[in-house]
Specification:
alpha+beta, flat, five-stranded mixed beta sheet, Beta Polymerase, domain 2, 7 strands
Length: 147
C-alpha cells in the first residue's frame, strides 16, 4: 500500500469514528441511564458481556424492540441475545439465561456426508413460556434444581 492509499485508509477510519461518536452522543442519555454494566461500541455494534439476567432485562427494556436468544458459544449454561437499535446491532454475550430456560445436552444423528453417519452430543437452549413457580423461585434464590 502506498502513502496515498494509507492516507485514504486513515481518513476513512476517522470518518467512521466520527460517525460512531455522533451515534454515542445522540444516545448518551439512554446509555448513561443503563445499569452499571460495561459495554463496547465499535463499528456497527454495541456489545455487552457476561451480564446477569436482571441486567439483561433492564438493558433490553431500555432499548425495546425484538430480540433473538440463542445458546452462547462463550460459556456453558449461558445465552446470547441479538437485537437492533437505531441502526446498530446490540448484542449480549454469555449472559445468564432466564429462569424459564435451561441448556441441555442431547445426542443427535449426523447424516452421512463426507464421513459416515454418526451421533454427536450437542448443547441446546430449551425455554418454556411459563416456568414453573418452583423453578422461578429457585432461580431467584440462585439455587440450581436437582436433575
Amino acid at each position: 500500500m502506498n502513502v496515498g492509499e494509507q492516507i485514504g485508509q486513515l481518513i476513512e477510519e476517522i470518518r467512521l469514528r466520527a460517525k460512531l461518536v455522533r451515534w454515542v452522543r445522540k444516545h448518551a442519555q439512554l446509555l448513561s441511564a443503563l445499569p452499571d454494566v460495561n459495554f463496547v461500541v465499535f463499528g456497527n455494534r454495541l456489545d455487552f458481556d457476561n451480564l446477569s439476567h436482571a441486567d439483561i432485562i433492564k438493558v433490553i427494556r431500555a432499548f425495546g424492540g425484538k430480540w433473538q436468544k440463542s445458546e452462547s458459544a462463550g460459556g456453558i449454561d449461558k445465552v446470547d441475545y441479538k437485537g437492533e437499535f437505531d441502526g446498530k446491532m446490540v448484542r449480549f454475550w454469555a449472559g445468564e439465561p432466564p429462569p424459564s430456560c435451561r441448556i441441555v445436552e442431547v445426542e443427535e444423528d449426523v447424516p452421512e456426508q463426507v464421513i459416515p453417519a454418526h451421533k454427536k452430543k450437542v448443547r441446546k437452549l430449551i425455554c418454556t413460556d411459563h416456568p414453573e413457580p418452583v423453578t422461578v423461585a429457585l432461580a431467584q434464590a440462585n439455587i440450581k434444581p436437582q436433575p
